[in-house]
Amino acid sequence: MRLFVGLGNPGDKYAGNRHNIGFMALDRIAEDHGFTPWRSKFQGEVSEGKFGSDKVILLKPMTFMNKSGQSVGEAMRFYKLDSTDITVLHDELDLAPGKCRVKAGGGHAGHNGLRSIHQHIGPHYDRVRLGIGHPGHKDAVAGYVLRDFAKADQEWLDDLMRGISDGAEHLARDDGGKFMNAVALRVAPPRSSNSKPKPKPAPAPKAAEPEPVEDKSPLQKLMDKFR
């Protein structure tokens, strides 16, 4: 069994925020793969499903970001999981918008949701870091993550969500490589082999053949007159 945790803040006010990209990812997985309807449990919302024989629990903590660990710890204890059975999907300031990276363990890098999870279950859990870019100055971070994605972000955001959903079964099997390949096929798809080739330039017109030059002698010309 795997526990996928998406980080965000509860309520319509925050639904479109950059900070809520973890919630968005789980919503897409649940919708695309026919998981159960969301229900309240573990101070959060839970949905269940399977990829083949692999059972996956989706958890969106409803405790607000800086207390996410309370919900995650409660779910981990209930299902008798180890922290290494947990994958947390969260926003990442240090990655460009649309980039995605898988990481096992490590620090929280000042992320309030991860900091809380560290406090409740320790640092030994997997993460899917979802790039949202950086506003450029640390004083602008709070306002930046709590603002909605811009309209210009919607195309790459949708591609990223589709890629995460496509790769979710590989994530459930702890195959980060295949998961990342699935994301890349959506975010940066290869050029289609069916694309039309560039038209070839028209061939240059042939140069006009030179007029034939008459090279008969005066005697031959005179003889021709009497033929």
UniProtKB/TrEMBL annotation:
Record GO biological process: protein quality control for misfolded or incompletely synthesized proteins; rescue of stalled ribosome
Record HAMAP family: Pept_tRNA_hydro_bact (MF_00083)
EC number: 3.1.1.29
Assembly: Monomer.
Residues with site note (Discriminates between blocked and unblocked aminoacyl-tRNA): N9
Domain of life assignment: Bacteria
Catalytic activity, as annotated: an N-acyl-L-alpha-aminoacyl-tRNA + H2O = an N-acyl-L-amino acid + a tRNA + H(+)
Function, as annotated: Hydrolyzes ribosome-free peptidyl-tRNAs (with 1 or more amino acids incorporated), which drop off the ribosome during protein synthesis, or as a result of ribosome stalling. Catalyzes the release of premature peptidyl moieties from peptidyl-tRNA molecules trapped in stalled 50S ribosomal subunits, and thus maintains levels of free tRNAs and 50S ribosomes.
Catalytic residues as annotated in Swiss-Prot or TrEMBL: H19 (proton acceptor)
Gene Ontology cellular component list: cytoplasm
Protein name: Peptidyl-tRNA hydrolase
UniProt keyword list: Cytoplasm, Hydrolase, RNA-binding, tRNA-binding
Pfam families: Pept_tRNA_hydro
Family assignment from sequence similarity: Belongs to the PTH family.
Protein's cellular compartments: Cytoplasm
CDD domains the record matches: PTH (cd00462)
